[in-house]
Amino acid sequence: MHPGFFNHLLLISQFELKRFFATRKGLLSLLTFAVVWYFILLYPLRFAADMVVQGKGFMEGSSFFDFIGLSSLQHWSIAEFAVYWHFALFIFPMLSITLAADQTCSDRERGTLRFITLRSSRDSVFFGRFAGVMIIQALLISATALTTLGLVLYRDATLLSSALPNLLAITVSVVLAVLPFTAMMAALSAKVKSVRQATLWAILIWTFLAGILSILAYYLPALAFFKCLIPGYQLSDLTELSEWQTLQLAYIPLLQSLVLLAVGRWIMARQAL
Question: Where are the transmembrane segments (predicted)?
């Protein structure tokens, strides 16, 4: 390992944060996300949470949620977090594919990646960019979770003590859910030369690989294990869990991330700069 690996990793992660929070392009992306999330929070999330509260109060959480296929919502003690959980599991993995696509590919296309690796190792660049993007996503997830907490307290301020543990559980779980998607984009970004190519390959690999493995697992059940390597494989199961139970499947995204990061590191070490 390079002697200054961790120092370089920290510097590259900081640069990634500055690129997102202190540049015109990054601030525009942040503003766009904030506006979109504002409308999601104000309308569909708030409306759905009100429906859950009314459903629990008037129908005692019975057949109504089973009928619409969202029976897991009634397992949460706080309706807003129940709805946020379902929204977050759909939004943030998709956001990760676009947000994490440009980790090293643009620098390779411009020729600046070769200059960067003269002063630091390829490993520090690869893992530093990955860590920086993960920190950005963790901050966005935390911010949206906090706004959802504000929605909870606006409805009933006495729920603060019970809402804080749920806030921590849901934030950690969503961060773990996007981890393999970011690792997949790190591997693709190390291979291709543009953000568009990385995004297209991610969509193709994710959809076709999932379909092919599902078909093979249907005819050859012994191959069902390989479905665990598909990012997001556990998302449908996560929707059925609530609060701290959502960490029961934490080993799946961690395993996926380790495999994808190992593949990405191997590509980065052998890819021409």
Answer: 27-45, 83-105, 126-154, 166-188, 200-226, 246-268
Residue 192 DSSP class: -
Q: Are 191 and 268 in contact (CB under 8 A)?
A: no
d(CA 247, CA 251): 8
CA distance 63 to 114: 60
C-alpha–C-alpha distance, residues 164 and 72, integer Å: 20
Please state whether the predicted TM-score (pTM) of the whole model is above 0.85: yes
Q: Give the DSSP letter of residue 224.
A: G
190-211: pLDDT as tens digits: 888 888 888 888 888 877 777 7
> What residue segments make up the domains of the chain, in order of their start?
5-270
Provide the b/e sequence for 168-185 (b: ≥16 CB within 10 Å): ebbbbbbbbbbbbbbbbb
Tokens, residue 113: 């990646």
Q: What is the DSSP letter of 193?
A: S
3-state secondary structure of 239: coil
